[in-house]
Amino acid sequence: MSEASEDYQPTVSRRRRWSSVWIIPAVAFLLAGWLVWTHYANKGPLAHVTFETAESIKAGETEVRCRSVRVGVVESVALAENLGSVHVELRIDPDSEDLLREDTRFWVVRPRVSSSAVSGLGTILSGSYIELEPGNAKATATRYTGLEEPPVTASSIPGLRLTLVAEEAGSLSVGAPIYYRGFEVGKVERRTLDTEARRIRFEVFVQEEYGALVRTGTRFWNTSGVDVSAGADGFKLRTPSFQSMVSGGASFSVPRGLAAGDPVDDGAVFTLYDDESAARDSGFEPDRRILLFFDQSVRGLNRGAPVEYRGIPLGRVVEVSFTHSPPGDSRVPVLIELDTRTLRHATEEETDGAVLLADAVRRGLRARLGTASLLTGALFVDLDFMPDTLPAELGRSGEFDVIPTQSSGLAQMEAKINAILAKLEGLPLDETLTKFGNAAEETTTTIVDARETLASIEDTLAEARKLLGSDATQSVTAELNDTLAELRSSIESLGPGGAVQGDLRRTLDELRSALRAFGSLSETIEEKPNSLIFGRESSGDPTPRARR
Amino acid sequence: MNRGTRAIDLGLASCHTCGRVSPAAAGHCPRCHSAIHLRKPASLSRTWAFLLAATALYLPAMTLPIMDVQGLGGTGPSTILSGVITFWEMKSYPVAIIIFLASVVIPIAKVGALVWLCLAASGRAAGAPKHHAKLYHLTELVGRWSMVDVFVVAILATLVQLGALMTITPGPAALSFAGVVVLTMFSAMSFDPRLLWDREFGGSRAA
Questions:
Q1: Which three-class secondary structure state does DSSP give residue A501?
Q2: Are A199 and A166 in contact (CB under 8 A)?
Q3: Does some domain include residue A489?
Q4: Residue B11: its chain A contacts at CB < 8 A?
Q5: Residue A25 touches chain B, beta carbons under 8 Å
Q6: pLDDT: which is higher, A263 or A129
C-alpha cells in the first residue's frame, strides 16, 4: 500500500506572502471600474431644445442625426413649467461636440405631407429622428428652440435672400417656386404677416447662379393658380406649372421700358404685384390729377379702372367720391390721374402739361364712360376728341383741373329707348281696345243664345223619352212582339225542320226518279225503237255492249 | 469518541488528477506526476480572491446594457433588470422568473454561500460541518446555471440579425456577466471542502 516515506526527502520552501491569485481580483476591479467609468464619464454635452410637441420623440431612443450620421440621442423629454412647450434634452456624442454652435438648428424629421413637399417618409419604418444642422457662428450654445418645420433651404446653401412685400397673401405658400421666364430659380422660404404695416412679407431664396438676374429695376409678380383672360380672340387659360397651381408661385423680370439697374444684395425688399400687368403698370408714374363730372350713373367704374386715349392707357381712376364736388352739384365727380408724358409723346410737343390739356379741350377733347367688359359690366374712362361737341374750356374745381364730359353710348341708348316708349304712348291703343271689347260682348250674346238652343233641345229630348215610356208605346211594342213571333213560326215552317221543305223534297225526289225512269226509257227507245211494240228482250245472260 | 484516522494525520494525500493516495512528502504523484498537496494550496485566499473579482464584475454586469435591440419597435439598450421587467410586463412570467433567478438570485446566492463557507472554514461561522458540506455541494451543482442568461444573449444576437426589421447586438454587460459566472465557478473550485472538517477533527494544517 504505502511506500516507505524515508525514501523521499521533503522539499522545504518558503510560502510566499501573497499568492499570485490576488492579481485576478485586482484586475477584475480595474476592469469593472474602467467599464463603468467609460460608460458614464465619457458622455458628451447635453443640449436643451424646446419643441412645441414631443410627438414621435422618445427618451433614450430617438436619435439625433446630422446628414444621416448619428451624433447623439434624446435623453429626456419633459413638459415645460408653463405647459406650453416641451423641453427635450439631447446627449450629443463627445466627438460631435463642436456642432453645437449658436445658430445650429434642430427639427424633428417625421413624415410630412403638404402641398409643396412630401418628406420624411422613411421615418415611418425607421422611427423619427431629430435633425441637427450645424451653424457657422463661432460661439457655442446649449439652449435652443427647435423648428417645427424643416427649413425650406438649409442656411448653408449659398444664394440670394430677398423679401417681397404684398398686400394680399394670395395662394403663395411656403415652398412655392420662384420663376424667371418660366424657369424655376428659387423658393419661398417663409411668409409672415406684418401687423404694423398691414402687409404680407415673403422671405424668398434665389439660387446663387441666378442671383445676378435680380436687379434694382426687377419687378416681382404673383403667378399663382390659373390665369384666365377673356379677350377679343376668346378665352385664354395660362398656368406656369402644376406646382404653381397648387402651392402658388411668383415670377420676376425687368419690365420692358424700365432700366434694369444694379445687382442687389441679400435683404433687398421688393413689392409683389398681383399679376404681370400690374407689374408692368408699376412703371407708370402719373403726374397730374384731373376731375371729371358725370351726369349719369357710374356704376361699374372701379378704383383703378383704366383711363384711355383711343385705346392707349393714359392713367387710372383714383377715386369716385362726393368730397370733390362743389356743394349743390349733383353730378358724380371722378378723380383720375394721368401720365401726360404719354400725351406729350403723342403730340410731339414739349409744352407744359396744363397748356397741352387746355389746348386739347379746346379742340374737342372730352371724357366719356365706356364699357370695358360686357361680362362684368365694368366701365372705363375714354378720352377722345369728339367732333360734334359744344365748345368748352378746361375748368377748375378746387385744386384739380376739370375736363368736360360727354354722356357715353349707354346714355344715348337710354335716350333712344325713351323715345320709343313715347312713340308707343302715342299709338291709338284705346280705340283698338274698345273695338276688342265690343267684339267680345257680341261673342258673349251669341254664346248666350246658343246656350238657350241647347236648353230647348234638352226639353225635346225629355219629351221624347216620356213618349217612349208611355202606355201607347208599350202596347205597340206588345203587338209588334206577337207579330214577330208569328213571323218566326212561319219562317220555321219554311225552314229545314218545317213541313213545307219536307214536302218539297219528296216531290223533288219523285220527280228525279220519274226523270230517271224516263231517261232509261228514252235510252231503250234509242237503241231499240221496236221495244215500244215488242218490249224489251231479257236474255238470261246480259252481254255488255260496247259504247259507240 | 473515535473519530477515525484522517489521511492528513498519516501524511497521505490523494492526487487531484488521478486520485491515488500517496505520501504527500513526495511532492508528486507516483502515477500521474501531477503535484499533490494535503489540502488545496492557498484554498481560502484563492476563493476569497475569486469571490472579490466576481463581485467587482457584477456591478457593470447589472448596470451596463446586456443587449441592444434596434429596428421596428426597437427598444434600444436594456440591462438585465430592465429585461426582467419587460418580460414581466409582457406577461411572460416564466421567462421573467427564470432570468431573474439565473442572473440575479443564483450569482448573489452563490457568492454569499461561498463567503459563508470560507468563514466556516476559518472557524468564524456557526453550524455543523455536515450542513456546510451540503451547502458546498449545492453551490457547485447550481452555480453553472447562471450561464443561461449569457447563452440567451448569444443566441439572440446570432439569430436576430434581420437588418432594419430587428437587430440585436450584445452589450458590454454580457462579457461582465460571463466573467462573474466563470469566476464564481473558479472560486468554488478553489475551495477545499475538507477544510470544513478540519476544525472539528482537531486543528491540523490550515489552508
A1: helix
A2: yes
A3: no
A4: 5
A5: yes
A6: A129
Which amino acid is located at B182 in the chain? V
Residues A384 and A301 both lie in one domain: yes
Q: Are residues A383 and A335 part of one domain? A: yes
A207 in the same domain as A99: no
CA dist list (Å): A546 to A531, A543, B141: 20, 9, 153
**CB A8 to CB B45 under 8 A?**
no
Contacts 24+ apart (CB under 8 A), A369-375: A369/A294, A369/A296, A369/A298, A369/A301, A369/A408, A369/A410, A370/A408, A370/A409, A371/A300, A371/A409, A371/A410, A372/A305, A372/A306, A373/A230, A375/A230
Interface predicted TM-score (ipTM): 0.70
Q: Which of A354, A389, A407 is the last residue of a domain?
A: A407
Task: For residues A133 and A218, state if they share a domain.
Answer: no
Same domain, A315 and A397: yes
pLDDT of B134 = 92
> Can you name the residues that pair with A118 across neighbouring β-strands?
A113
- Collect all residues of chain B within an 8 Å Cβ-Cβ radius of residue A33: 56
Q: What ranges do the domains of chain B cover?
A: 1-38, 42-198
Question: What count of other Cβ atoms lies within 10 Å of the Cβ of residue A160?
Answer: 22
- Looking at the structure of chain A, the number of domains it has is 3
Query: Which three cell numbers mark B60?
Result: 457593470
- How far apart (Å, rounded) are the C-alpha atoms in residues A448 and A437? 17
* CB hemisphere CA count around A186 (13 angstroms): 30
Asked, for residue A545, whether it belongs to a domain, the answer is no
- Which of the pair, A489 or A346, is modelled with greater confidence? A489
Average pLDDT, chain B: 85
Domain shared by A63 and A139, yes or no: yes
Enter the pTM of the model. 0.49
Q: Is residue A198 part of a domain?
A: yes
* Residue A87 belongs to domain spanning: 41-145
Residues A342 and A388 in one domain: yes
> Pick from B182, B63, B108: which is nearest to A33 by CA?
B63
* Interface residue B115 vs chain A (CB under 8 A): no
Q: How far apart are CA A154 and CA A156, in angstroms?
A: 5
- Dihedral pair phi/psi, residue A445, rounded to 5°: -60, -40
Q: Is B42 on the interface with A (CB under 8 A)?
A: yes
**Where do the H-state alpha helices sit in A248-350?**
276-281, 340-347
Taking only the tens place, the pLDDT of each residue in A100-151 is 888 888 999 888 877 666 777 877 777 788 999 888 888 888 889 888 888 7
Interface test with A, best of B176, B180, B184 (most A CBs within 10 A): B176
pLDDT tens column, A299-352: 888 877 888 888 777 888 888 888 877 777 788 888 888 877 666 666 655 666
Span A435-462, pLDDT tens digits: 888 888 888 888 889 899 999 999 999 8
Is the confidence at residue B206, as pLDDT, over 50? no
pLDDT digits (tens, 9 = 90+) for A201-252: 888 888 888 888 888 888 888 887 777 776 666 777 777 677 767 777 888 8
Residue at a domain's end among A407, A424, A439: A407
B7 touching A, CB under 8 A?
no
Instruction: Tell me, yes or no, whether A130 and A215 share the same domain.
Output: no
Looking at every residue in chain A, the average pLDDT score rounds to 81
Is residue A482 within 8 A of residue A488, CB to CB? The reply is no
What pLDDT, on the 0 to 100 scale, is given for residue B201? Answer: 73
CB atoms within 10 A of CB A182: 9
**Residue B50: band (very low, low, confident or very high) from pLDDT cuts 50, 70, 90:** very high
Which chain B residue's Cα is nearest to A4?
Answer: B23
Mean pLDDT throughout A264-276? 82
Place of cell 493516495: B21
Grid coordinates belonging to A332: 358724380
Mean pLDDT for A177-198 is 86
